[in-house]
Automatic annotation (TrEMBL):
The name this protein goes by in its record: Acetyltransferase
RNA-binding as UniProt keyword: no
InterPro entries tied to this protein: Acyl_CoA_acyltransferase, GNAT_dom, NAT_camello-type
Residue intervals of the N-acetyltransferase domain: 3-160
Keywords: Transferase
Parts forming coiled coils: none
Lineage, top ranks: Bacteria, Bacillati, Bacillota, Bacilli, Lactobacillales
Transmembrane segments: none
The keyword S-adenosyl-L-methionine belongs to this UniProt entry's keyword annotation: no
Amino acid sequence: MIYQIEEIKSEYNEGIEAVIRSCLVEFGADHEGTAWTDPMLGRFSELYDEEASDYWVAVDESGKVVGGVGVGPLPGVAGVCELQKMYCLSTARGTGVAGQLLNRALEYAADYYDQVYLETFESMLAAQKFYRKHGFKQIPDRMGDTGHYACDVFFLKNLK
């Protein structure tokens, strides 16, 4: 399968919301304290319409959104961005599309930030392995105020 990485547009909002909700259900994270209750979940084209903030989706040959990733400032921490809402449908995992999404996000982030931070869940072991493979180091405590208080694993990567 060939995937296109595209910047978020309004026509992708519904598709990426469905991807994220599907993944949150899959990993038992469909509850308070996670992206599940984020009021902007279906409005990424509006949310990521600012400098130093962007979101990309992976779209398959039929036009279906199969994954996405965002970058935005980490509230309360200067020089650090957050890797936001990186999810791929199970059918797209193992295809290399997650690496393409991550690389696009990191290239963008390096233009604006010194470090990138992310939060995930203990239950997402494959995601943790993926982040370590791409140079992220696990850190003991959360940084900033993402509002996702249910996340229990934290990573940081130097960009410069």
